[in-house]
Amino acid sequence: MRYISTRGSQQNLSFLQILLAGLAPDGGLYLPETYPQVSQATVDSWRGLSYAQLAFEVLSLYADDIPAEDLRAICEKTYTKEVYCHARAGDQPSDITPVHWLGEETVVNGQGTTSIGLLSLSNGPTLAFKDMAMQLLGNLFEYALARENKELNILGATSGDTGSAAEYAMRGKKGIKVFMLSPKGKMSPFQCAQMYSLTDENIFNIAIEGVFDDAQDIVKAVSNDLSFKAEHQIGTVNSINWARVVAQVVYYFAGYLRSTNNSSEKVSFCVPSGNFGNVCAGHIARMMGLPIEKLIVATNENDVLDEFFKTGVYRARKSAETFHTSSPSMDISKASNFERFVFDWLGRDGAQVAKLFKQVDTTGGFDYSNTEQLQAIAQYGFVSGRSTHTDRIHTIQSVASLYDTVIDTHTADGMKVAREYLTAGVKMLVLETALPIKFASTIEEALGHPPSRPSAFEGIEDLPQQVTEMAPDVQVVKQFIVDHTV
Ligand SMILES: *Cc1c(COP(=O)(O)O)cnc(C)c1O
């Protein structure tokens, strides 16, 4: 498998060559030259596989420069029931991503019912779906660095979920250090405890006096200093990394296989979306031939993507137009993985994509309303909807009372929008992107009591915490990295 950039000027790279990369040098994102096709017979032949075996089958189509036995070992080591151990009572932990059926709901036109369920993606160490890809990335990075006798210093900024998923994936890994900036005093006590209580020698938590954007700006400034970046082996693990996207393709196959008896049946997926990484993996699974009926993009009040899929107008938001919501991991101003879909949608024309996204940088967006291309979106199965704080509260209440199941705020956005697209006989899986304990205060607002806490997390707020506080100063952060990497 060879990789290219969505902006046309990179080609013929292998999986290991792009594994540690973020953006391509031309500013584009990496994608495979073609999507490997998986026949219905092949899909059906994967029915008996464990999650780790399925991951190997899917990933080996993309990472064919890793010897099969090595890739198999990496998958087996990553997807274990010991790591993904927080499944709901009654769900099968060995499934890694169990399907938790809620029940039958009436479809949109009132003519019949269909089953709706949660695809549980949040049973990993940090209780959010980012563990699904990040845990694999930790093992892939360690493997690739050891092969080349290299080291990597990961620098990132987080408002919560990404940073903790990265730290739990990279902790104790040989050749890797993590420098994670977070906005001081802006995360929930639970999120702080998750990150700051790690005592591994290769993990450095830095609390920046400021907001998330201040932390993000520092990461950008350091990454733009190319000589510093090269000298100190600085890398990132943000959501545009190709390996993260492709790791997520696996659970669309797993969810499909657990919901059907044979591959003549179609399933719809509803995906709580921010940077379009998760649902981009669904798009890729569908392009590979997985029988997906609809891919439903669910946004919160930050509805850039809903607007695009409804109207063909893409309009990146300014910071002042970006809302802080009760599903904070979806609070985005533009969707960083969206360019991957646009590349496929516009016939894989790199020059056109380059032009379009340069236009986004200068004018803030593009407009495909009233065009043939807008009609063409339907053939990719995409539809969309949005959800607000009030919707979230009502949906959490409704799912709790109908099904005795507590869902988190992001999953609630997905559930709300999924209900707008139910069709008779097509099963609907809502991707559960976090467990409710991570967003306890909104759950309490909805239900009058806090969500239950997995026993492994009892009292984590009381553990000793290790964090270095710092002014929002690029030089100070650089010096800290220098002092801790020799
Ligand atoms: C990151 C995240 C999302 C958004 O995922 P994208 O891949 O950015 O679309 C949704 N929910 C939760 C809980 C998350 O952590």
From TrEMBL:
Its EC number is 4.2.3.1. GO terms for molecular function: pyridoxal phosphate binding; threonine synthase activity. It catalyses: O-phospho-L-homoserine + H2O = L-threonine + phosphate. Keywords: Amino-acid biosynthesis, Lyase, Pyridoxal phosphate, Threonine biosynthesis. Coiled coil: none annotated. Pathway: Amino-acid biosynthesis; L-threonine biosynthesis; L-threonine from L-aspartate: step 5/5. It is an enzyme of class 4 (lyase). The keyword Amino-acid biosynthesis applies. The modification N6-(pyridoxal phosphate)lysine is found at K130. Signal peptide: none annotated. Its cofactor is pyridoxal 5'-phosphate. PROSITE patterns: DEHYDRATASE_SER_THR. The keyword Transferase does not apply. Residues 123-350 form the Tryptophan synthase beta chain-like PALP domain. Residues 2-79 form the Threonine synthase N-terminal domain. GO terms for biological process: threonine biosynthetic process. NCBIfam families: thrC. Belongs to the threonine synthase family. PANTHER family: THREONINE SYNTHASE FAMILY MEMBER, THREONINE SYNTHASE-LIKE 2. This is Threonine synthase.
